[in-house]
Amino acid sequence: MPVCYSTVHIAVRRVLTPAQKQDLETKLQQGQKMRQALSTLNLTSDQKTKIQEIVKAARSQRQQPAQTNSL
């Protein structure tokens, strides 16, 4: 089952402070891409690591069905 954008979005929001969540939502509503919006949030190194893990897991899960179907 592919990972949808909202699943990643929810997981990322769990890592952010309330102020960062609000800033992220504002930037996304203004049309910024998730990566661009996150880069402006002044994340701690711990937050960056957690978000990288979330994105990596989502990419891995998204690629699994394609690899399974190609067998």
Give a description of the structure:
It is a single chain. With 71 residues, this protein is mainly α. It has four helices and no strands. The longest helix is centred in the C-terminal third of the chain and has 25 residues, at 45-69. The mean pLDDT is 86.
Characterize the biggest β-sheet: none
- Tell me the series of helices and strands, N- to C-terminal: HHHH
Distance between the termini: 17 Å
Number of DSSP strand runs: 0
Poorly predicted residue ranges: none
Mean pLDDT: 86
Query: Structural class, please?
Result: mainly alpha
Strand content: under 5%
Radius of gyration: 14 Å
Protein topology:
Blueprint: H1 5-15, H2 18-29, H3 34-39, H4 45-69
Structure summary:
This protein is mainly α and 71 residues long. It has helices at 5-15, 18-29, 34-39, 45-69.
What would the keywords be for this entry?
globular; 4 helices; 71 residues; mainly alpha; 0% strand; 76% helix
